[in-house]
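Reading is simple: the token line describes the chain's fold. The lines below illustrate.

. . .
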Amino acid sequence: MAAHEISAETRSNFHLFCDNFPFPVMLVHKDRTILAVNKAGEAVGYPTGIRCVDMGEKEHHKGCQANQALAEQTAKRVVGWFDFAGAVLDSYWIPLAGRNDLYLHFAADITEWAKAEMVPKTCAAAGCSTCNCG
């Protein structure tokens, strides 16, 4: 794992803008090393110094938009039901302006506000075992 340095100004600005966001936010290097997390990320145990793709199961990362966001220097968004989270997540990958190696990544749980058709029916009633919504 490569060590990455970010300036005190970048770290300070990350915390200034992200610490009061109610969901975990990560500042990530293009090689997927987590460089900083906000207060919500710290509260749920998000680590720094490891690669985000090494957290959870590999399939949880199949929809990652980091490469596209960095290549195009524009934010990418994916909204949908994620079985592993049991939630409708509004997920973002946002490159830092003027940097081709750093981006913010976060996913807000919007299940409460999602259209009913975005949330699967209870698995127990449907007899399925493909998600953890039941």
